[in-house]
Amino acid sequence: MNVNDLDPRPVGATTFTRCHHAELMHPMGGMPTALFDWQTVTTLDSGTVHTADVGRTQIAVDDPDAIVALVDPQTLQPTGEAMTRAQCYAVVVSLAVESLRLSASAG
Questions:
Q1: Digits of tens for pLDDT over the chain (107 positions)?
Q2: Residue 36 bridge partners (DSSP)
Q3: What are the boundaries of each domain within the chain?
Q4: Which of 1, 3, 7, 86 is deepest in the core (most CB within 10 A)?
Q5: Measured between alpha carbons, how far is 22 from 34 in angstroms, rounded to an integer?
């Protein structure tokens, strides 16, 4: 490091925001809610990657018939398909049950 490193200078980079953690709150007799933690990802032209947490959002399954437009997980572009919040919730719960089955069969 030298004294020139103290001066700000432009660098080449790409940046985007992504959901890096999702959590399903499944309270007994309560309102199912999904929580999502977001982060920005910045990749410098040198290849160095920096991440920073930027917040949390949530959505309740308070309107089971509300339509959710599906997006491609890699591109976040709409797929043209949709399902209801209740169907989305059923998919996530089904994944939880499947993970339990796989864990039981592995151990």
A1: 556 667 777 779 999 999 999 999 989 999 999 999 999 999 999 999 999 999 999 999 999 999 999 999 888 899 999 999 999 999 999 999 999 999 999 87
A2: 22, 57
A3: 1-60, 63-107
A4: 86
A5: 7
- Rounded distance, CA 28 to CA 45, Å? 48
The answer to whether 58 and 34 are in contact (CB under 8 A) is yes
Place of tokens 């949530």: 58
What is the SS3 assignment for 51-63?
A: EEEEEEEEEECCC
Residue at 48: amino acid letter:
T
| The two structure tokens encoding residue 12 | 């080449």
- Interatomic CA distance for residues 106 and 8, integer angstroms: 53
Least Cα distance to 44 among 16, 70, 14, 4 occurs for 14
